[in-house]
Every structure is written in C-alpha cells, then in structure tokens.
User: Which sequence fits this backbone?
C-alpha cells in the first residue's frame, strides 16, 4: 500500500487528483487530499474509495508533520512561498516531495540532505515551469545526440482564452491568478540575441514584441520574460547565440495593456489610500497630468499620442472613464486595477481557457541550417476542467505515478531536464492529448 | 564645561565643526570629533585647542557607548541607516541627539522614552530635509497668523554647479553622493495639484517638468520628488489644493538623463555580471533592440525618436558609444553607469557647487490673491567649503549652539517645524549669508 499526500485542493488540482485516483485501486494506493477546507478537498475526491479528505492547518507544525509522516510521498499544490516549510518536513521525515513551482534557494540548501536520505525532490514539474522544460530538453538533447548544434532557442507560453471565448474587445479574461497577470513582466527582462546580451526595462516591454503564429489558433504576440540568461546553464546551452523565454498574449493585447504600464497603474510599490467616493475616472485621471481645460480623454491623447480609437475603446470598455465609484480604494494602483479587471475579465460559465506554447529552434546540421517549430495548443473542457489545471496537474501526476511504479529511479533534488525524467512523462502525456506538433524547415 | 560629540567627519562636516569651534573657548565647550579615521577627524579640527579627534569603531558597542557617555550632546553625521543605533545609545545614556537625516520609524518608536528622559532628539535639521522645512514653515505660519489662506505650496531644491563651473555639455558634475544622483526619482512621485491627486511613475518623471527661475542664476527644471502628500500633515496644510516638493536640475538636463531612464540603464534591481572585456558601446547596446544591419546610433534614434543632436551629443560626450572597456562590469546597470559618470562628472579643483531652493506659494488674503516666491542661492567657496556642506552643516551647528545656550528649550522628538526651533535658527543663518529672497506679487 502506497500513500500519496496532496497538499492543497485548489482549482489546479482536479486533473492531478483524477489521474491518480484512476489507477489507485489497481495500484493499491491511498490518496489523501489535505486542504484548509475539508469540504473542498472532499469535493475533488468525488467519494472515491481510495481517497480521503482531511483538513489541515499548516501553522500547526505537529499536526502537519503527523499528516506528512503517514504518507510515502507529498505533492504540494500550495502557494510557492510555503514550499520550503513542507520540503523541510519531508526531508526530516524522509518523504519524497513533488511540486510545480520554481526550485528555490532554500530548496537548494537542502540538496545534500535530500541525497543523503536517498529521496527525490522534483520541482518545476507543471506547465511553466515544467512542460516547457521537458518538451524543450527533448528537442535539445535529441538534436545534440544527432550531432547538430543549436544556435538559437526561443520559447513562448501563454495561459489565455480559447478562440471561441474571446468575446470581449480585449480577447482576454482571467483564466488564472489575476494578480500575476496584472504584475506580469515587472522587473527587467534579460536574454541573448545573436550573441548580444539584451535587457528590457518593464516600461519598454510591451513595445518590444515578436509575432508567434499557430496553425490552429492564429497569431499571438510574445514578450521576453524575466531572466532567460540563466537558462543557458539549466538547458546546457552555454554557448548559444540566442536564448529567449517569453509570454504570449493575443495580438493587440499588449499595446492596450501598455497604457496602464505607461501611466503607472500597474504599480504595486505603494498604497494609495483614496477617498471612499473616488470614481474610476478620478482614479485614471490621477495618473494623468493636470490641465486647466482639457478633459481626461484629451490629456491621455496628449501624453500617449500613439493611442488609437481601438485602444481607447478597450480602456473605455473596462469602465476606466466612468463616474462609478471604485470597487476598492485602499491598496496599490495594481491592486485597485486588479479589482476593476476581475469584474470585467470574469469567465462566463461556458468559457474555455487555452494554453499555447511554442519552441523555435535554429539548428546547424551537417547538411545545413534548419528551423524547428514545436507547438502545443491545449483547450480546457469547461470552467472546472481547464487547460491550465490539465497542463499543470498532469505532468505532476504522471511524474508521481511513474516514480511510484519504479519507472523514475533517479534520486536527489531535480527539475525535469534529465531524459530519464522527461522521456516517460512526455510519453504518458501524449496519451492524455498533451502533444506537441513539430514542424521542420530548412533555412 | 559642555561636551559636543560629532560622529562622522566626512565632507559635509566642515562648516559644522568650524562654526562650533569658533565660539568653543568663549562658551567653554569641548568638541570631540569621532570618525573611523582619526586622521580625517583631526584634519577637520585644525589643531583647535577645544577640539579632540578620536577613532571610533561603531561595531564595538562598549567603546561606542563610553565615547557617547562622556558627551552632553551627540551630532550624527553618519549615514542615515546608522542613526537608530546611535539614537538608542543616546536614549539609554540620557544624551541629546541631532541629525540632518529623515526621522525614521525606529526613531518614532523612541518618542515616549525621549520625552520621559526630558531629552531633545532633533532630526531633519540640515538642508533638505532641514532648511526647506524651516524656511517654508516660517512663510506658512506667518501667513496663517496674518489671517491668510494658503491654497498652493510648491518647493524645489537642487544641489548643482555654480554657473561659472558649468563647463561641460551636461552643465552638471557630482557635487554630492553620485549613487543618489543616479537613482534620483525612482519609485512613484505623489502630490496634489488643484485638488487632484497625482501619481507619476519613474519612467514618466523626467518628461513632466516645471520651469523654475532665479533672478541671479537663471532657469532650472523641477520634477516632483517622492511622497509630497505626506507633507500636508507635517506642514499643517491638510486642506491645501496644491502641494508639491521637487528636485531641480539645470534646464536641458532632464531630457538627456531620460535617455538612461527610458533604456533601463539606471536600473538598480539586478546584477549584470558582464564579461570583463565589455565596452561602453556594448553596455549601451545591450539596452537597445537587436537589429541585423542598423548601428547603435540608428537603433537609438528608432527607439527614442525624440532624441535630437544635442541630446545625442551629451550621451556621446560621456563615452557611451566608445569601444573602450567599461570601468566596472559587475553590478547593477545603475552601479556601472555611476562608475562611468564619476570619471566624467568629476569636479575640477577650481569648481564651485551651488544650492538652489525655491518655495512658490499661492495665498488668499482679505485683499485678494497673491503669490509669494522665496528663493535661496548659495554658492560654495571651493571644493572643501562647499555650498552643500554649508547648508547641511550650519543649520545643525546653529541648532546645537542655540540649544546649549538655552535658547531652544523644547524637548522630545522633533523636526524643525516649530517656530521656537526655526525662528532663531533662520535668524542666525542670515548672518552666515544663508538668506532667502522673497518676492510678492498680486495675482
């Protein structure tokens, strides 16, 4: 009998739980789902005979450790900042640990301990990070093995709407954490292009776009995301001339979103403390210069002359120019904007989300140059069974299943860049419909 | 016998020390100057019979407290982050404390203790903060006393070059901490204008300027600085329609500096770790988009089309387009830029600095509206006796002198916004040549 403990039964855990339950009886496994809400944990288990829902309060260390102690393996679906706590418990109690979050510095400090106890701690095994690493490393390692040289690697991912649900002027709704969407791109994006190191500050990011096209679902725009330079080492591409990882939005989104960026409305660095009667229009106006006679629309046009009617229409559609009071008046500009957008970019019942991912590689072969374009399109079933939950949860579920089956035997602290980890996971993912379509073109 | 302890004998302490030494014999005072370098402390005292130079290591608490314990009063000229440590010692040992730095939250937590021991802790008693508060509060309180209503208050300060030393294309050299100049304006500037709250993000700041003119030294441009809104409470102007505090630069500086801001070269949020052979030109190019055929100058023009030949000339004058290796390759973009600028914006031996400050008030009187413009221009003598050292050091020296003479009797935690503090200080400052010129105009 094997016991899997899943911590956190949020939206992205449905596929993960379903996948593991499906073979639980045959494989003689118990699935314990622990959440702050026992009800939510219970719903996800759908009265399955191998499942057990429990309430957990993470602050109670003794209770937490008792729950972890009864399991063989822990999957953490908790917010990333909680992972070091859980990982420390797992190390102490000798339990394997799996997550879809970035490997943190705190996690790295446990490396020796993890190895000494012969455990596997596998992080970054969801969508992004996760599926991006696995699918990229498969191409990279296969090409290297064939004696080819990769001189350019670009990879873009987006968590967006299925085309049939793009029924507002922005062609966008929140399909995952709204706060992350509002703050997306903050900091300085770093990458290398044709041998030149490149740095883009946040306020320039939404102007420096690349067109990325999918046969099935059309055109998107991609912008570089955070520190791509560190992936030279992670992906074993130390001498590569071009390496860029980025985020996708539907074409036309970025130039309109850039209005908020330029005005400072996505700023999360200070609290506004506005009067409770402050309107949307006053809020928007507070980021524009004062003028004795010009109205808000005229001042906006003066300040950002590149704004056209389409962009203006999108801003207006969000209610930014209205005299209605704000839904929230304390908090950062970003937090107030998020509250406004949450209402406008809410998913309708029948809406479906979509994950798009594309790798573009430039490769030198003995026969000449070639370009490889590898694309993934994954659409959600409905608001519960989303593409996001699927692409985050299934890689993790499959990794755990393969591990318990003895098909992943590596131990230590890892992200899924080793063939022995990603090969069987990608193979199993294909059977669930998560499959990349590859196009090769001689250049 | 009274003993004054001055902690820190850096550049800005010369006027402070000289002023206190001048009357030390007559007033029966000892001046102890403690610095990490006994030599530097000693130089500043010029063998004066009432002065004593000592070496201090602030990490050695016992020694530090012994030195503080022997004094009646401590003036801290140390970096601001050290003030809580010194202030805590002073509170424990029952010593008065004076500084030219902002009153910190940690300082505020000592308020009750300071009062209980009947001590005076006076912060923000230098130039900015300091002289700005005092000169502003004198006008504000005098107008209020006369039954007038202040509806607008704007105040700008700049630490710049005397016009005769403006002999480079930027008309600027570092006359104080270069790092603070490179990072100036970061964060979000907040103020109120004609009843409208206004927020300006950093990347918009150097475009939203006001012309500020001085009869004696010409035109400058001012931009809003940090959180002016908090001064409504500090200055007792809660219902004011316009309140803005800002920074002055010589006209033409900001649009050129904005090139660095727009490109992200003033970014201090990450380390670059560039190859050691990286040139100025490569550094600058790393903030521009890649292009197959266009050169750096063409790409810059494409990205920032408002750049004219004059601006381009200024950037070029700094060596930004040269193939010379960088003076520093590790550190943030801001740190690397600072290192480049330090060489180019170095003061020559004969250069003189200059402090400019201007308050502009809109006032409603029973006889109608009037405008008050109060201006200070203070030029340095030479590279040692700078305007910066004078305007930071003399307010502090005078405050201490008046306090020890029993002419400031208030106790507790204060900044100089009370008439009983600022009135005698401003009066004494006038005798040293630090004097505001006031113009009143009916509107």
Assistant:
């Amino acid at each position: 009998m094997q016991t899997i403990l899943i911590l956190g039964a949020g939206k992205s855990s449905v596929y993960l739980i379903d996948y593991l339950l499906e073979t639980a009886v045959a494989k003689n496994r118990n699935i314990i789902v622990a959440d702050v809400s026992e009800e939510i944990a219970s719903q996800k288990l759908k009265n399955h005979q191998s499942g057990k829902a429990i309430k957990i309060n993470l602050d109670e260390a003794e209770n937490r450790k008792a729950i972890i102690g009864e399991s063989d393996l822990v999957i953490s679906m908790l917010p990333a900042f909680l992972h070091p706590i859980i990982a420390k418990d797992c190390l102490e109690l000798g339990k394997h640990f799996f997550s879809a979050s970035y490997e943190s510095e705190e996690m790295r400090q446990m490396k020796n301990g993890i190895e000494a106890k012969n455990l596997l701690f596998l992080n970054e095994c969801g969508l992004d990070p996760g599926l991006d690493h696995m699918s990229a490393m498969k191409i990279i390692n296969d090409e290297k093995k064939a004696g080819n040289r990769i001189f350019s690697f670009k990879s873009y991912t987006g968590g967006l709407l299925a085309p049939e649900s793009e029924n507002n002027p922005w062609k966008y709704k929140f399909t995952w954490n709204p706060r992350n969407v509002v703050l997306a791109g903050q900091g300085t994006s770093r990458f290398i292009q044709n041998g030149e190191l490149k740095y883009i500050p946040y306020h320039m990011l939404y102007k420096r776009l690349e067109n990325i096209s999918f046969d099935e679902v059309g055109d998107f725009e991609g912008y570089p995301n955070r520190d791509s330079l560190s992936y030279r080492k992670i992906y074993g591409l130390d001498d590569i001339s071009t390496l860029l990882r980025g985020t996708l939005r539907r074409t036309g989104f970025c130039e309109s979103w850039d209005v908020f960026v330029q005005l400072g409305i996505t700023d999360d660095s200070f609290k506004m403390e506005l009067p409770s009667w402050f309107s949307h229009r006053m809020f928007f106006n507070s980021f524009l210069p004062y003028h004795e006679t010009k109205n808000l629309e005229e001042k906006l046009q003066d300040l950002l002359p590149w704004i056209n009617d389409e962009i203006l229409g999108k801003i207006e559609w969000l209610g930014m120019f209205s005299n209605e009071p704000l839904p929230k008046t304390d908090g950062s500009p970003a937090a107030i904007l998020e509250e406004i957008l949450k209402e406008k970019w809410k998913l309708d019942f029948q809406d479906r989300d979509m994950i798009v991912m594309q790798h573009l590689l430039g490769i030198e072969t003995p026969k000449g140059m070639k370009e490889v374009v590898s694309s993934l399109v994954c659409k959600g079933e409905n608001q519960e069974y989303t593409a996001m939950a699927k692409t985050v949860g299934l890689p993790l579920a499959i990794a755990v299943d393969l591990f318990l089956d003895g098909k992943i035997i590596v131990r230590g602290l890892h992200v899924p860049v080793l063939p022995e980890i990603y090969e069987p996971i990608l193979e199993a993912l294909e059977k669930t419909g998560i499959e990349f379509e590859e196009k090769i073109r001689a250049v």
Summary: Chain B is about 35% helix and 25% strand. The first strand of chain B starts at residue 2 and ends at 7. Chain B touches chain A through 31 residues (CB under 8 Å).
